[in-house]
Design goal:
By secondary structure, the chain is α/β, with parallel strands linked by helices. It has 17 helices and 18 strands. The protein folds into 3 domains: 275 residues, Aldolase class I (TIM Barrel); 66 residues, no CATH class; 129 residues, Alpha-isopropylmalate synthase LeuA, regulatory domain (Double Stranded RNA Binding Domain, 2-Layer Sandwich), CATH 3.30.160.270. It is elongated and about 105 Å long. The chain starts with 10 loop residues before the first strand and ends in a 5-residue tail after the last helix. Bound molecules: acetyl coenzyme *A (ACO), 3-methyl-2-oxobutanoic acid (KIV) and magnesium ion (MG). This is 2-isopropylmalate synthase.
């Protein structure tokens, strides 16, 4: 193990975080001095090696923020960006004065497109400017990093000549940026090998990779560069940055860790801090993290599919290649939805304190699927309501609601039609009724279909959860022969919950009456007030 905890058989990769510079170039992401400081402290706790704290010439506030970070964040190298000109370099030097280890990062474009149209300089002029800028920066900081902007669209031999000039002038790190996210893993790896083989003095510096995600290849390209000799990797938290963003550091770090069989490289990153840092950056920049984002997304360790949930419950590694705790996420989440199976439902109910018999689990699962078809997320409170509904339905089902339809409006009389299956009766019974509102019409239609009239003592409706798709829980109490019978049901449709609850109460009522009735008197007539 080295001082940062990397195993001796692994090659140490320096992690260069540019969330506060390239990341802050994301449209709308700008941070004030205090926010930058907060992120820098989190990055220090995360264990990155270099923090690119800003571009001091950009504004007085930016310069001050870099100064403050230098004062308060002591372990990592603090880096500041500068164009290849004396003003930028002097601003960077000024900002970095208090750093325990300072680095000026000089960048200068080397591609034909950039040199001709943006800089309006010849290759020879660019080479000279690079040399002078690095030499000047050397006088203002402990370390100098030189980046050939748009390197991946540059002539490779010219690139090597510029790097040689920068190294001779004192550069300690040579960065080969894929500024516009144009390269591919194989090509980028080849470029690193080419530069390493054709640049005099390259062995004296650290080679660095800096990738953008315009083609979604930033992390793959960074890993390819590491395999081809890069010993510093640059990126941002959550992959934020100019246009499609930079390489997401959390993804690179975890790829190296999870696939150590393929990548014998280690970093000093305290991976347990990744999620916390991601949340902080997202909150302060106002850039949300997509739920399916690798490593730090809310769904990165969530499973909804029943087959996956079953696998996870039997052995976590069936569907998880790393444990969430390793990246600071709290735990694996089994999300209950319409793709879930009985194993996950039983597990969640057990966690909620419900041990169900196989029959009750089956009945609850059937109802759960009906609800999940209508609701995106079935919450714990929904589940409890469903179980309690099933537990309440202990009486044998004499009546089963097959169908209902309600017509209502503020200028029409509410009318309900129901179809009820009655145990022992071959054809289902269909009836309709009008009422004083949709619930009244519905309960009247049920009374007609079942032939049972009950004295409704109370009807209570409440929302189980909040939101437009909240489940409504209906509890009805009916009185018969001095005894009260309760029916309870839940549904995202309150009319359905009302009908189911009422049918349940009637089932209990006729069941109780049947138990009291003489053997030759049918149960339904013992409780029945009227039929038809
Ligand atoms: C690939 C990257 O991420 S590079 C970093 C990009 N980040 C930023 O630009 C954010 C901060 N930028 C800023 O605040 C401003 O652009 C400043 C303060 C740096 C410069 O502002 P201005 O002086 O008004 O110049 P402006 O941004 O309009 O144009 C850039 C100038 O820098 C020149 N330039 C660009 N890159 C370099 C370089 N590496 N070295 C020297 N000059 C450069 C351009 O050719 C142009 O020069 P010109 O005015 O002679 O045509
Ligand atoms: C400043 C340089 C390294 C940069 O951000 C880029 O080229 O993408
Ligand atoms: Mg960049």
């Amino acid at each position: 193990m080295d001082a940062s905890g990397v195993r001796g058989d692994k090659v140490r990769i320096q992690v260069f975080d540019t969330t506060l510079r390239d990341g802050e170039q994301s449209p709308g992401a700008s941070l004030d001095e205090m926010e930058k400081l907060e992120v820098a402290k989190a990055l220090e706790a995360l264990g990155v090696d270099v923090i690119e704290a800003g571009f001091p010439v950009a504004s007085p506030g930016e310069l001050k923020a870099v100064q403050e970070i230098c004062r308060q964040v002591r372990r990592p190298v603090i880096c500041a960006l500068a164009r290849a000109n004396p003003v930028d370099i002097e601003h960077a030097g000024e900002a970095l004065k208090g750093a325990s280890v300072s680095r000026i990062h000089i960048f200068l474009a080397t591609s034909e497109i950039h040199m001709r149209y943006k800089l309006r300089k010849t290759p020879q002029e660019v080479l000279e400017i690079a040399r002078e800028a690095v030499a000047l920066a050397r006088r203002h900081a402990h370390q100098v990093e030189f980046s050939a902007e748009d390197a991946t669209r540059s002539d490779w031999d010219f690139l090597c000549r510029v790097f040689e000039a920068a190294i001779r002038a004192g550069a300690t790190v040579i960065n080969i940026p894929d500024t516009v996210g144009y390269t591919t893993p194989a090509e980028y790896a080849e470029l690193f090998r080419y530069v390493a083989a054709h640049t005099e003095g390259i062995e004296r510096v650290v080679l660095s990779a800096h990738c953008h995600d315009d083609l979604g290849l930033a992390v793959a390209n960074s890993l390819a560069a590491i395999e081809a000799g890069a010993r510093q990797v640059e990126g941002t938290i959550n992959g934020i940055g100019e246009r499609a963003g930079n390489a997401a550091l959390e993804e690179i770090v975890m790829a190296l860790e999870v696939r150590e069989d393929r990548y014998p490289y280690g970093t000093g990153v305290v991976t347990e801090q990744l999620y916390r840092t991601s949340r902080l950056v997202s909150r302060l920049t106002g850039i949300p993290v997509q739920p399916n984002k690798a490593i730090v997304g809310e769904n990165a360790f969530a499973h909804e599919a029943g087959i996956h949930q079953d696998g996870i419950l039997k052995h976590r590694s069936t569907y998880e290649i790393m444990v969430p705790e390793r990246v600071g996420q709290t735990s694996t989440r089994l999300v209950l939805g319409k793709h879930s199976g009985r194993h996950a439902l039983r597990q969640r109910l057990a966690e909620l304190g419900y041990e169900l018999t196989p029959e009750l689990l089956e009945a609850t699962y059937r109802r759960f699927l009906e609800v999940a078809d209508r609701k995106k997320h079935v919450t714990d409170r929904d589940l409890v309501a469903l179980v309690e509904e099933q537990q309440a339905a202990t009486a044998p089902e004499r009546f089963a609601l097959e169908y209902f339809h309600v017509d209502d409006g503020n200028t029409s009389v509410a009318t309900a039609t129901v179809r009820v299956r009655i145990a022992g009766v071959e054809a289902p019974v269909q009836e309709a009724a009008c009422g004083d509102g949709p619930v009244d019409a519905l309960l009247r239609a049920i009374e007609r279909a079942t032939g049972v009239r009950a004295e409704l003592e109370s009807y209570h409706l409440q929302a189980v959860t909040s939101g437009k798709d909240a489940m409504g829980e209906v509890t009805v109490r009916v009185r018969d022969d001095g005894r009260v019978h309760v029916g309870r049901a839940v549904s995202t449709d309150v009319l359905e919950a009302s009908a189911r609850a009422y049918v349940q109460a009637l089932n209990r009522m006729v069941h109780a009456a049947g138990e009291r009735a003489p053997a030759d008197e049918p149960a339904s007539t013992a409780a029945a007030g009227a039929r038809g």
